[in-house]
Amino acid sequence: MFFNTQSLNELEQRYRAHLINSLSGFKSANLLGTVDKNGQENLSIVSSVFHLGANPALLGMIIRPHSVPRHSFENILETGYYTLNHVNEDIVTQAHQTSARYEKVQSEFTETGLTAEYLNDFKAPFVKESKIKMGLKLVSEQVIELNQTHLVIGELIALNCPNSVIQPDGFIDIEAAKTVAITGLDSYHTTNKINRLSYAKPDTIPKPLVTL
Question: Which among 100, 150, 179, 200 is least surrounded, fewest beta carbons within 10 Å?
Answer without folding.
Answer: 200
